[in-house]
Design a protein that fits this description.
With 394 residues, the protein is of the alpha/beta class. It has 2 domains: 171 residues, 3-Layer(aba) Sandwich (Rossmann fold), CATH 3.40.50.2000; 186 residues, Rossmann fold. The protein has 15 helices and 12 strands. The chain is globular.
Amino acid sequence: MIHAPRRPQTLALRAGTPSDAVAAAHLRRVLIIMPQLVGDAVLSSVLITALQDLIPECRIDVLVHQPLRELFIHNPAIAAVYTIDREWRKKGVWRTARPRLALIRALRARHYDLLIQSPHTTDGSWGPSLIALLRIRYAVGASALTHGSPLKRFMWRRLFTHTLPPPPDPNRRHVAELHLDLLRRLGLAPRPAARRATIEPGPAARARVDALLAERGIPHQSFVLFAPLAGQKGRTLPAALCRDFLDHCERYGQNVIITSGREPWQQAFARTLADGRGACIHELAGELTLTELAALAAVARVYVGADSGPMHIAAAMGLPVIACFGPGDYYRFSPWQIRQSVIAAQRSCQPCELDGCGNSGDADCLHDIESRTLLDTFQAFWILPESTACHRAS
């Protein structure tokens, strides 16, 4: 039997808050369902920072897909991290009944007051299911109209106590602000200083990065974190633009560390860029975990690269960002609250959110970005004192 949660009572409110706002005193145990993509998950961490600031005594748990667990386990503001295996969806409900039931039992024991479902969670069934099964009093999520499935729209209207209004078309609201809107919908107003995306890499990741840099003789704050690859080929920087950037860095003796994901095509691309280069150009293609990438960003001087998860990780670690956008939506996914420069060709079809033109894996708008634009922007971000010149490994 499905049990619908009780509707929130109307509270005495200050001016400007919604009529169905929830008192902070009622929210002591919160579960946040995070998105599945790296960049979205990093941006959704603004919820954790803002909640901790608004309700310091609140216990915050997160539910994430297994590959993203490492982004949250070291965050001191998070009480517990629970995971969903991406293979569960492929195998079906019956074949994965045992781990699903074990997860539900563990979550039931936490006695949540509030469930927050990220608007960018593509598997929308977990939120309504947990609201009903765990009898969570309050639940906030995106508008029911954002779902194409009539069943999901019905579940949203029936089970969520609070939902956001439908987004405008086109939607130009930054994804981080959209997450903070979930708190505003409850009558909670995040302070500007607490609207930060945060990642804590943990001591093991920081130690490994220090060891990798020591092996190569690269001091902290003396190198560029260059991440030209994205999860889609259509958002990866063109090879010619990458070569021109690396030529420039070699010419001026600037250390560069090239990183990539672990897909074979990503590693091959990164290694091809590094082949035949001098001692200033280093590559760690496919060698870093997400937390190690965050630890590397914490000690870099500037990020240069594609619109990707690593871009958001770098911004969350406080690293200045130069990001080249192609098909991606730079209005909604620009680096969050950090010194930044977004470079885009400004074609009339941007942003299309496709994997290149016509999903071909190749984006004309990225080829339109001129090397001179990237290099001039980079020089403005990098004032080169003598101490940051290229250091050769001993």
